[in-house]
Task: inverse folding
């Protein structure tokens, strides 16, 4: 065996370095036999620089001038390739199914020294590093996953490794459920199904909504054309009656006038309900929007602009009925304040938490004594309070009215947001 | 001084018989007024006006066949001194504006008719225009906002029917882009940000009719 002295230094620095050497054997003229050691020396160098080595019964003379360097080994060949037990032609077949087992046998022709021939192989994609001197000069891989592979093999006769340029490249196809066309097709189908499903649902909701709209339109027209007009006509009739009552019967006149006012008020309520029906055809407006509208209207009609403060966010799935009922309560409370308390300031506030909403309407008007009995001339206002309470109860809440004469009135209610939408 | 003792002669136009009867009673109890004729649609109103030449005409705005504002306009064309009072259920600024634009001199809401009617009849008969403070406020508010064009009003009516831009475009024979532009202009003019708010505001202001 022969190597450059520098190789030792290299190995000392890098223990993983593979020694580059040249091996000499019988093919080079070495005589078989056991090496004899004499006086601690395995050989003797003569004047000409030749080395004499005693080899048992024979003698080997090495002339370093004559020594040839290690030959370049012949490049290896792929002898046989089996995929899943079948022989394949590496030039023709390059694609295999997922999970294939591949076995490659290789060999190289050495004209002189088969004994010195060494092999290494590497399947890029499967082997982490070169595999040296595999038993049987064979590489076997079971259950290959999808991907591109390059099989390389090179030989050496002790010196340089032959160029391990890729000898065979092949591809293992992914299973059908991972293939691109399958993923694209499946994705397209899934999206298509979602779109179709959504469209169907939207169409169903629209159809149902159209029915609701038609019905509301019919009801509002019906009430407007019949009930509201008849009710409105009652007002002048009662007024005419009140005028005709003999002047001595003052009680009857005021009673008729009270009835007439109540009728006028009912007309207003009914008209607002009809407007509301039409407005809600487009969906119930959110409480805060309605309150802003109420603030605008109040300012336009009465010159007082209520402030609107909001804390928290309205959950998206809150019942629209809560919006409507709380708005009605606010509307009534503001109307009462304007009509009786002459406030210079009205504050509306809404506070949401996860399952409740609180509404407060506070004014700085003249206030009233909530415990005082409501006298006859305020029947319709009494009716308004009752309605407010009913609305609060409908959305799972209670109405609280606090008022002190001279310091204003606060109307407060808390409604449940988890109320079923009816 | 000789004051004309002839009572104020009133023509009452309303498509609801009960309302006409109510008005007749409330006018009838006044010693200096009488309802001399009635009509239940716009066509009849014009005919009755020509037939009996009333001093004051009470005109409901929501009338079949010929609308209230249209009847007011025709009567004013026949007689530019005709004194007409609009009578309506609604207080939207667009309704009020249309009535005054057509030539009405007074405006009475049906829910305050018992309190206001007699006073307004006397004022209008005397040649004065009567605009209650809240009515005036509504008109002022309207004046602050630019009016919708005819096309925008058509688009808005279809929005209120729940139509989408594409459907509106098809219904009006215009492009979807043009429709979108109209809708945007409507938002700007009504000072709103979405369809729901636009329709709600249009109904409140009487730009879209309840019919």
Result:
């Amino acid at each position: 065996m022969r190597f450059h002295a520098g190789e030792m230094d290299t190995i000392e620095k890098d223990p993983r370095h593979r020694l580059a050497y040249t091996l000499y054997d019988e093919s080079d003229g070495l005589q078989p036999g056991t090496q004899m050691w004499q006086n601690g020396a395995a050989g003797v160098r003569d004047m000409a620089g030749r080395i004499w080595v005693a080899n048992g019964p024979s003698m080997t003379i090495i002339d370093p001038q004559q020594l040839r360097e290690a030959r370049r080994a012949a490049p290896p060949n792929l002898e046989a390739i089996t995929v899943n037990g079948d022989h394949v032609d590496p030039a023709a077949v390059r694609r295999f199914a997922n999970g294939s087992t591949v076995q490659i046998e290789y060999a190289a022709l050495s004209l002189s020294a088969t004994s010195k021939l060494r092999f290494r192989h590497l399947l890029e994609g499967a082997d982490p590093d070169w595999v040296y001197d595999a038993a049987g000069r064979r590489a076997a891989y079971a259950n290959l996953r999808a991907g591109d592979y390059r099989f390389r093999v090179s030989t050496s006769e002790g010196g340089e490794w032959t160029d391990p340029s890729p000898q065979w490249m092949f591809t293992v196809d992914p299973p059908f459920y991972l293939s691109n066309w399958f993923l694209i097709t499946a994705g397209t189908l899934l999206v298509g199904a979602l779109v179709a499903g959504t469209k169907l649902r939207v169409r169903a909701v629209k159809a149902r909504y159209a029915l609701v709209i038609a019905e509301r339109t019919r009801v509002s027209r019906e009430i407007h054309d019949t009930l509201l007009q008849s009710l409105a006509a009652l007002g002048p009739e009662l007024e005419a009656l009140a005028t005709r009552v003999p002047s001595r019967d003052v009680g009857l006149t005021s009673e008729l006038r009270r009835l007439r006012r109540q009728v006028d008020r009912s007309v207003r309520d009914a008209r607002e309900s009809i407007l509301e029906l039409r407005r809600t055809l487009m969906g119930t407006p959110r409480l805060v929007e309605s309150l802003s509208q109420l603030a605008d209207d109040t300012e336009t009609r009465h010159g007082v602009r209520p402030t609107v403060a909001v804390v928290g966010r309205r959950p998206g799935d809150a019942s629209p009925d809560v919006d409507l009922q709380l708005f009605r309560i606010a509307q009534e409370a503001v109307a009462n304040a304007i009509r009786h308390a002459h406030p210079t300031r009205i504050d509306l506030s809404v506070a949401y938490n996860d399952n409740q909403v609180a509404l407060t309407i506070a004014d700085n008007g003249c206030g009233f004594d909530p415990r005082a009995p409501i006298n006859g001339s305020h029947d319709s206002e009494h009716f308004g309070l009752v309605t407010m309470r009913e609305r609060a109860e409908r959305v799972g809440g209670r109405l609280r009215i606090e008022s002190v004469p001279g310091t204003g009135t606060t109307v407060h209610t808390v409604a449940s947001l988890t109320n079923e939408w009816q | 001084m000789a004051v004309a003792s002839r009572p104020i002669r009133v023509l009452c136009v309303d498509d609801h018989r009960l309302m006409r009867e109510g008005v007749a009673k409330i006018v009838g109890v006044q010693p200096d007024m009488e309802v001399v004729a009635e009509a239940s649609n716009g066509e009849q109103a014009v005919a009755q006006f020509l037939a009996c030449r009333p001093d004051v005409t009470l005109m409901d705005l929501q009338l079949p066949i010929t609308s209230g504002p249209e009847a007011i306009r025709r009567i004013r064309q026949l007689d530019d001194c005709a004194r007409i009072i609009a009578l309506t259920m609604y207080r939207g600024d667009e309704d009020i504006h249309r009535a005054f634009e057509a030539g009405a001199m007074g405006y009475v809401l049906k829910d305050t008719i018992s309190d206001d009617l007699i006073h307004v009849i006397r004022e209008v008969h005397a040649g004065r225009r009567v605009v209650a403070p809240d009515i005036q406020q509504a008109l002022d508010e309207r004046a602050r906002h630019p009016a919708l064009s005819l096309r925008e009003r058509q688009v808005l009516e279809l929005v209120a029917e729940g139509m989408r831009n594409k459907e509106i475009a098809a219904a009006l024979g215009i492009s979807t882009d043009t429709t979108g532009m109209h809708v945007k202009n409507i938002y700007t003019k009504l000072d709103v940000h979405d369809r729901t708010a636009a329709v709600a505001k249009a109904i409140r202001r009487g730009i879209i009719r309840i019919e």
The beta strands of chain B are 8-13, 33-39, 56-60, 83-88, 106-109. The mean pLDDT of chain B is 87.
